[in-house]
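Field notebook, page 172. I keep forgetting to write these up properly, so this time I am using the form the group agreed on. The chain and the ligand, 5-aminoimidazole ribonucleotide, are recorded exactly as supplied. Prediction of the bound pose follows.
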Amino acid sequence: MMNEPGLKQTAVRPRVGIFFGSQSDRDVMKKAYDLLTELNIPSESYVLSAHRVPEQLHDTVHRLEKEGVEVFIAGAGLAAHLPGVVASITLCPVIGVPLAGALEGLDALLSIVQMPKQIPVATVGINNAANAAMLAAEIIATHDESVRSTLQNYRRQMKENFLKDNKGKVEF
Ligand code: AIR
């Protein structure tokens, strides 16, 4: 479920919590939601800013953790402290998505990837919310055989598609 206005609501237990700092991040972060949905992994998404609404962020992380969320994805642009703050609240793995706002996203990338020791954030490429979803799925697959099998099928399909489109030797 997402705070208003939001993405699709779901009644099943969310396994991944998706956060982003602003409605302006929505289109990029929807790619994480879309891939998780394709992989049959329920998620809930929230717009929550670490410095604009810190109390709500804390409450939501704690509630989702109690509800059984296993991984968090957090996307933010500019001084992107959201993933680090989420990681400071929970022991679940946190995957940060640097979003391109200024400086083509380099500011957000460095803010997220350069977490000081003791509170790590796994960081994907700039705007690569889909890779965050894939990494979240792989984390869940370490202890869920059904998700593992879904990922194996996904990779098989990916290879078949690649080989269909790329038949070997290239002539220019
Ligand atoms: N942001 C919001 N709160 C903290 C941060 N870092 C980020 C959002 C968005 C950017 O600031 O993630 O990428 C601009 O947000 P807005 O709401 O000003 O458009």
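OBSERVATIONS:
- The radius of gyration is 17 Å.
- Residues 20-22, 24-25, 49-52, 76-80, 82, 99, 101 surround 5-aminoimidazole ribonucleotide (CB under 6 Å).
FOLLOW-UP: compare against the apo run.
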